[in-house]
Amino acid sequence: MDQNHIRNFCIVAHIDHGKSTLADRIIEKTGLLTDREMQEQVLDNMDIERERGITIKAQTVRTIYKAKDGQEYVFNLIDTPGHVDFNYEVSRSLAACDGAILVVDAAQGIEAQTLANVYLALDHDLEVFPVINKIDLPSAEPQRVIDEIEDVIGIEAQDAPLISAKNGIGIEDVLERIVERIPAPKGNPDAPLKALIFDSLYDSYRGVIIFCRLMDGRVSKGTHIKMMATGATAEVVEVGTFGAGQFIPGDELSAGMVGYITASIKNVRDTAVGDTVTDDDNPCAEALPGYKKVQSMVYCGMYPADGAKYPDLRDALEKLQLNDASLNYEPETSVALGFGFRCGFLGLLHLEIVQERLEREYNLDLVTTAPGVIYHIWKTNGEMVELTNPTNMPDPSEIDYMEEPIVAAEIMLTSEYLGAIMGLCQERRGRQTGMEYIEANRVLLKYDLPLNEIIYDFFDALKSRSRGYASFDYELKGYEKSSLVKLDILINREEVDALSFIVHADSAYERGRKMCEKLKDEIPRHLFEIPIQAAVGGKIIARETVKAMRKDVLAKCYGGDITRKKKLLEKQKEGKKRMRQIGNVEIPQKAFMSVLKLDSE
Amino acid sequence: MISFYIHFPFCIKKCDYCDFLSFPASDEVREEYVDALCREISLYSDISGKNGDNTVSTVFFGGGTPSLLTTEQLDKIMSLLNAGFLVSKDAEISLECNPGTLDLNKLKDIKKLGINRLSIGLQSAVDSELKTLGRIHDFNRFNLTYSDARKAGFDNINIDIMSAIPGQDIESYKRTLTEIVNADPEHISAYSLIIEEGTKFHDLFDCDTNVIAGKNLPSEDDEREMYHMTRCVLGEAGYHRYEISNYAREDYECRHNNVYWTGGEYIGVGLGASSYFCGYRYKNLSDMSEYLSAYGKEKGILSQFGPNPDDLIKDVRLHEEVGLLSVKDKMEEYMYLGLRRTDGVSIRRFTEKFGADIDSIYGPVLEKLIKDGLMIKNGDMFKLTDYGIDVSNVVLSNFLLD
User: Fold this and answer.
1) Which of A338, A320, A337 lies closest to A329 in space, CA to CA?
2) Phi first, then psi: what are they for B274, rounded to 5°?
3) CA distance B150 to B168
C-alpha cells in the first residue's frame, strides 16, 4: 500500500468538547457508512461508555476520503480513551499516530485534559492542528479560544477550522486539513516486521484480536509473530482493517498501515498494550520504545452479596479480564464478608466501570469495600512490603516507616474559585507546586497530592466547590514517606475487617468520628444497644451508639386485610436479608461503602 | 360458620391521618353502592346455599363511617343476610360509628334490626387533639352519642382510642384513659397513630423535627410510656388485654376480630374488602366505578357462576390478589396472627392442624426468641412477652418461612 495516501491520526480533547461527535462526522462524510449503519456515536460501542459519554477502550476505524486533489486517502482514526485512569493506553494510541486533531470547545476554551492530552501528543512528536468546535453556541468565543491556544500551548491556531460537529458545520475543512497537515507514515515495508500494539480485544471465536500500527515490514496469514516484551509467539490466522464496528479481512498489512491480527491467542495478557510485534523468523533489532507493564493504582475488595455467588463472581472476573489486561484480582477472605476478591484497578473510574459491568452484564449483587492505594511498608528488618489490603498491615512494632503514592495534579479553574479549590487541596494534604494565570481570570494550579486523598471523592468535591468550573488531571509522581495509621472499626466490640482503612495520622480522629456517625445512621436499631467505635492501634478514638429498638408500630388490622399485614412482615424480613451478620449485629451491605461518602455533607 | 365484613367506604369528611378506603359521596352514590353491595351478598348466598353450612356467626360493618347508612339501607342489608343465610341467634353484629352521626331514634331502630354491638371512634377525649386529627366531633358530642347508645339498649360497646397524636403528651393521654374508663364500655381498642403514605399527615410530617402542622409528635420514650400506661390503667379498671391492641371486659372480646387472629374464614363484601373464603385470600377491586359496574347492573352476568366457588373467587372482574393458601402459608398465619393474641398459640393445635410438630418447623426460631426474652412458653402455649409485644413486627417476621 502506498504510504503517501495514508493518514494515521487521533483526536484529542477535554471531555465533552466533542471528540466523539467529530469522529462520527468524519466517518459519515468519508462515506464508508450508510446512514443505516451510522449509530449515534459509532466509536463508543460499550453501553457504559455510551451512558457516561466517555471512551474507555480505544477504538479505531479506517475510512476512505476522496480529497479535493482528486486522490483517495486512507484515514485511520484511532480513538483514545478519555480519562486520566487510562493515561498509558492514551500514550500508546498516540504513539500509533502521526498526527492529532486538537478539539477545543469554543465556549469553554482550554481545560485541564486539553493540556494534558496535547502535551502528551507533542511528546510523541505528533503534528497537532487545532479545531474550534461548537461555534454555533450562543456563548462561543472562537477568537478568544484561538488566542488562548496560541498563548498557552504555543501552536499556530489562527487558521483553525471553526466547526460545529453536532450540526455538521465545517467538517470538509477538517478533512482537507487532515490530508494537508498530518504527515504520511514513513516506514520501510522491506525491513523486518515491527508493529505497535495499541489495544487488543478478546473474541470467543477468534481469540485475541491485536490492534496494531505497522512501523516497518509486513504481516500476513502464516507469519510467525512474536510479542517482544511478553515473549509470546503465534502463527497469524488473519489480518485486516477496521470498518466501523466490523473487521474487514485483508491479505496483508504493511508499513504505515493500521489494522488487526488474529493468531488464536488465548490471553490478552500475552498481547500487552505497548508491546512490539515482530516476525519470529526475521525479528527486528530492537523493540519500539515506551512499553511498560500496567500497574494497578487502586485496590478494593469485591464480595458477592450472596455468598453462594462466589463462583459466579470468579467466572465474571475471569471473563472481564480476557478483555481488560489492566484488571487484577486475587482471592481473599474477610471475616465480615466471607469469600471474595481483592481487585486492582487503574483508578477509581476503572473500578466503577468494572463494578458496573459486573452488576449489569453479569447480574451480580456486590459488596465493595473502601478503595485504597498501594502503600510501601518498610519493615525494621529492611524488607519492603506492598500493602494493598489494610487487613494485612504488619504489627506497628515491625514497621520502620511507610510510604504513600503521590500524584502531580493540574487543576484548571476560573479565578473566583481559586480560594475554595486551594482550600480543598490543602485539606487533602496537597502541596502547591505552581500557579499560572492563563488569562485574566483563568488559572492553572499545580499540586502534589497523595493519591489516597483523591481516590474517594476529590472529583465530586472539586466539582461542587467550583460549581463545575474546574477541571482536573493527574499523573503518578512517586512514593513519599508519610505518617500513616490503620483505622479499625469495632461494631458491638468486634473488629470488622472489611471496614478498616489506612489514613494519615492527622486525619485519623476526624475520619474515625465521621465513620462512626455514618455507621450509626446506616445500622438499623436492634433489640440491644450497639456501640460503634473507631480505633487506632487498639486505642478507641471515637464512639457512637445505636440505641436499642424500643417499640414498633401497633397498626390497626385493616378489616381483615391479612395480606397487607404479611407484606409488612415480609418487608421486615427482606430488609434483614440484605444485611451482613457480624456477631449479633446485622449490618446493611451499603454500610461497607459508606466510608466513600464521608465528605459528602 | 360464616363471618361477614361489610365495607361502607363513605364518610362525612376524611380525617387527616386516615389511610382507610373512604371518602365523602352524595346520597345517590351511596344508594347505588348499597344496591351493588346487596347484589354481592346475594351472590355469596347462592353459593353458600349450594355448599352446605350457611350459618352466620359474626357480622362487622366497617368503614368509612357505616353509621351513615340510613336505617332503610341497613334494613335492606340485614334482611338480605337473614334471607340468604342462617344468621345465628347469638351472632355478634357490630357497626362502626362516629360520634354525631346517630341520634337516639336511629340507634333504637338499628338495634331492632339485630345490630347488637357498637364500635365508636372516639380517638381522644381532648378536643384540641380531635381537631388536630381532623375529626368532625368533640368530646361532648361523643358523650351524647354514647349515652344515647346506652339508652337505646346497646350493652356491648367498643371505644377506639389513639396514642401518639401530634400535640399529645402523657398527661393528656392519661385524661383520655381516665374519661374512657369512666364511660365504662365493654371493649376498648387502643392503637398508636401511624403516619401512612398518602395521608394529609404524611404530607405535613417533617421527619427531621418530628412535627406535624406545628405540633410535636410524642417522643419515642413518651409513646412507649403511653402504651404501657394503657395496659396499666385499663388493667386496673378490669379490662384485660387479649390482643396486642384490644382490651375487653370478661366475655366481651370481639368475636369477629378473633376470627381474623385464629385463622377463621370470612367473607368481605364491598369496595376493596378482603376475604378469606374456601381457602383463598383475595380482595375486592378498590376502584368505585369498577366495583359498581361489576355489581351495579342486573345480576345477569353474575348468575353464570355455578356451585364451584373457585370460579367466583378467581374472576378478575371482581377480585384481585387472589391466592390459595398453601400449608406453609397457613402455618405462617397461624403463628403471626395467633401470636397477636395474648394467650398465644397452642402447640397441640398446631400439630392437630398441620400434622407436624411445631418444633420441626419453628424450633430454632422459637428457641432464639425465647432466649432473647421476646417469647415465653407456658404449658401448651407459646406467647409474646411484653417486650415481644413492643417489637412485635420484628418478632412476627421471624415466622415467615423461606
Assistant:
1) A320
2) -95, 145
3) 29
Closest CA to A103 of A61, A151, A166, A42: A166
Return the pLDDT at A550: 65
- Flag whether residue A565 sits within 8 Å of chain B, measured between CB atoms: yes
Minimal Cβ distance to A552: which of B191, B337, B394: B394
Residue B263 has pLDDT above 60, yes or no: yes
Handedness of CA A128, A133, A135, A140 (dihedral sign): negative
User: When comparing pLDDT for A80 and B246, which is higher?
Assistant: B246
Q: Does residue B90 belong to the interface with chain A, where contact is any CB pair within 8 Å?
A: no
- Range B143-161 average pLDDT: 96
Say what the ipTM of the complex is. Answer: 0.84
Between helices A171-181 and A19-29, what is the axis angle to 10°? 90
CA-based Rg of chain B, rounded to a whole angstrom? 22
pLDDT tops 70 at residue B299 = no
Q: At A388, phi and psi to the nearest 5? A: -110, -15
Residue B285 in grid coordinates:
377491586
pTM of the predicted protein model: 0.62
Mean pLDDT of B254-258: 94
The mean pLDDT of B245-256, rounded to a whole number, is 95
Query: Distance between CA A467 and CA B31 in Å, rounded?
Result: 62
Q: Residue B166's pLDDT is what? A: 93
For residue B133, pLDDT beyond 50: yes
Reported residue count of chain A is: 601
Domain boundaries defined on chain B: 2-261, 327-399
Of B61, B51, B129, the residue nearest B101 (C-alpha):
B61
- Residues of chain A positioned with their CB less than 8 A from the CB of B257: 557
Compare all CA atoms of chain A with the CA of B369 and give the residue at the minimum distance: A527
**Cell numbers at residue B118, please?**
357498637
Q: Where are the alpha helices (DSSP H) in B134-250?
A: 139-151, 170-183, 200-204, 220-236
Decide if B324 contacts B348 (C-beta within 8 A): no
How much is the average pLDDT of B42-57? 78
Q: Residue A525: its chain B contacts at CB < 8 A?
A: none
Cell numbers at B57, concatenated = 356467626
Amino acid identity of residue A263, one-letter, is A
Nearest CA among A268, A246, A251 for reference residue A199: A268
CB–CB of A543/A516 below 8 Å? yes
State which residue of chain A sits closest to B397, comparing Cα positions.
A569
Contacts of A569 in chain B (CB under 8 A): 336, 393, 396-397, 400
Cβ contact, residue pair A570, B194, below 8 Å:
no
The pLDDT of residue A44: 44
- Tell me the shortest Cα–Cα distance from B274 to chain A, in angstroms: 5
Nearest in space to B159 (alpha carbons), one of B133, B130, B123: B123
In terms of CATH, what superfamily is B2-261?
Answer: tm_1862 like domain (3.80.30.20)
In the beta sheet, which residues pair with residue A8? A76
Distance CA A336, CA A580 (A): 7
* One-letter-per-residue 3-state SS of A200-237: EEEECCCEEEEEEEEEECEEECCCEEEECCCCCEEECC
Q: Is B297 helix (H, G, I), strand (E, B) or coil?
A: coil
**Total count of residues recorded for chain B:** 402
Give every residue of chain A whose pLDDT is below 50, as ranges.
Answer: 33-58, 600-601
Q: What is the dihedral of CA A186, A192, A196, A197, to 10 degrees?
A: 140
The cell for A466 is 467550583
Percent helix, strand and coil across chain B, each rounded to 5? Answer: 45, 25, 35
Q: Which DSSP category does A284 fall into?
A: -
Task: Give me the pLDDT at residue A36, please.
Answer: 42
What top-level class would CATH report for the domain B327-399? mainly alpha
Find chain B residues with C-beta within 8 A of A556's C-beta.
Answer: 189, 191, 245
Instruction: Name the one residue in this structure whose C-alpha cell is 364500655.
Output: B185
* Phi/psi of residue A416, nearest 5 degrees: -65, -20
In a mutational test of the B interface, the residue from A561, A563, A570 whose CB has the highest number of chain B CBs within 10 Å is A561
